[in-house]
Specification:
This protein has 244 residues and is mostly helical. The chain is built from eight helices and no strands.
């Protein structure tokens, strides 16, 4: 077994263990709030210290940034695990941007830590770096949302009802991996014209509501299971897929 295969098996074993205790969601988003919140707090504390002439708040800002630097490491590690498990390591544009912005945030936080050794001398430079750190976390949040939600799949012309409900479910749960308006592969296959095909692209089974339901309950390859999706949501999703 190759080193790459061993690494994949280790990652999958982590998510399998989590699934056994009922946790089937990505693990990266939960910890991202820590470096993001600390970075925003550090910037706010530093700005406030200048307006109120309170050096102790500037010190609090430095403490926030040190903690942000420490927490960004596990956040990046868990992001890598989610990327490999849920996206199969696919180099999507939002993922490329998140990796770039996370790397820049790591460099900026490290620079702030070094300049913070002489805070009186480097006060203006520190504030500037804090501002750049803030820009990085805002960018990370944007591309994280872009990765999960992508472009809107519900158009203004779609009436309310099962199809619109299915479009919203697709947008929330499927759009990160599947194109609704293309046949090309994103992470999983595109679904344009799905019900005009003879077979489903992954399983090879005939295209039908029953087989889509089966795929959701017991998926193939990297697709996560949606066994907890309510029956009415599955019906709405199937109704939407029939319109593509």
């Amino acid at each position: 077994m190759t080193r790459e295969a061993v690494g994949e098996n280790m990652i999958e074993s982590i998510y399998l263990m989590l699934a056994k205790i009922g946790y089937t969601h990505p693990i990266h988003p939960a910890i991202t709030h820590v470096p993001v919140g600390l970075t925003i707090g550090g910037f706010v504390f530093d700005i406030t210290s200048r307006f109120l002439t309170r050096p102790v708040l500037a010190q609090t800002a430095r403490h926030c940034m040190v903690l942000a630097l420490i927490s960004v490491i596990p956040a990046m590690l868990l992001g890598y695990l989610d990327w490999q498990h849920f996206y199969g390591g696919a180099w999507l544009f939002p993922i490329k941007m998140k990796i770039f912005l996370a790397g820049m945030l790591l460099i900026l936080l490290s620079s702030a830590l070094i300049l913070g050794l002489k805070p009186e001398k480097n006060a203006n430079s520190i504030l500037l770096i804090y501002a750049f750190c803030l820009a990085m976390v805002l960018g990370l949040g944007y591309f994280g949302g872009e990765l999960v939600y992508g472009s809107k799949t519900v158009e203004s012309g779609v009436a309310e009802g099962p199809v619109a409900d299915g479009a919203r479910i697709f947008n929330a749960s499927c759009a990160a991996c599947h194109y609704p308006d293309k046949t090309e592969t994103k992470i999983g296959p595109g679904f344009q014209g799905l019900f005009n095909r003879e077979s489903m692209p992954s399983s090879g089974l005939p295209v039908s509501g029953a087989n889509i339901r089966k795929q959701l309950k017991t998926p193939m390859q990297f697709m996560p299971p949606f066994s907890d999706l309510p029956e009415e949501d599955i019906e709405a999703l199937i109704a939407y897929l029939k319109t593509l």
